[in-house]
Amino acid sequence: MLIGCHGLVWSGSFGPQDLVRVVEQTRSAGFNLLELPLLDPDSFDLEGAREILTGSGLTITASLGQGADTDPLSEDTGAVDRAVAKLTRVVDILADLGSTHLVGVLYSQLAKYLEPASAAARARAVSTIRQTADHAATKGITVGLEVVNRYETNLFNTAREALVFLDEVDRENVGIHLDTYHMNIEEPNMVAPVLEAAERLVYVHIGESHRGYLGSGTVDFPSFFEALARTEYEGPIVFESFSNAVVDEQLSRTLAVWRNMWSDSLDLGAHAHRFISDHLHAARHTL
Ligand code: MN
């Protein structure tokens, strides 16, 4: 199985020198996949990263949430155009790195909206994701739309709502990306959404209720992993955790990472890899 780790567990920046350490720590914690936050693809040193990442033995994926200047839901058509351009650029970077998955909040600004999404805004998001999906399809890349809580988007907050949006997008290489942290806020339980989305589930984030050490919060992980096993999910499973000990100026503020949840990345990551592996193992034997 692909069991991965979000880059912000290791570092707030991803230049070539950082990446050498990030790759080494990802591997030493036991993971075989690294998810890069590519919120600002223009600042990413692709030339410098290519050799380090393609020779790393790790599967590479990328995630991002949109900023205000690239919000697909915006009435400003310039922002929508910039969203499409940014997503196109990230697809090209991923193709260059031999990656297969682009995920995250690609369809919306990662922010608390003060009103519901209008029909026009929704249509702009559908168009943005269609254009991204069509470009990604030419590169063999799957697009995962992350379902996040109400404080981070107004377009959809549950797997059921995301499935409706997915039908509107109507592209085969677009699927659902579930995250246990967000599910724990918005879903009725940790099983039904997985069963409902099973046919379209392409990516999973494993996060605790406070985004710290797995098992030290309130997320019902045994039920979630049992649902994954029941549906025979075989896609990437990626650990995501945030602390003010490792900071990305943009992402940490957007996600309201204000307090210290951990300071030893390697201890956290190795623990998370064991936790995920153990739960997967146990879930298979629960069936
Ligand atoms: Mn997530």
Entry summary:
By secondary structure, this protein is α/β, with parallel strands linked by helices. It contains ten helices and eight strands. The two termini are 18 Å apart.
Report the uncertain regions: none
Please report the number of helical segments.
Answer: 10
Count of individual beta strands = 8
- Terminal CA distance: 18 Å
Strand content: 15-25%
Secondary-structure element pattern, one letter each: EHEHEHEHEHEHHEHEHH
Mean pLDDT level: 97
Spell out which ligands are present. Answer: manganese (II) ion
Radius of gyration: 18 Å
Protein structure class: alpha/beta
Shape: globular
Sheet with the most strands, sense and barrel status: 8 strands, parallel, barrel
Give the helix proportion (percent range): 40-55%
**Strand order, largest beta sheet:** 1-2-3-4-5-6-7-8
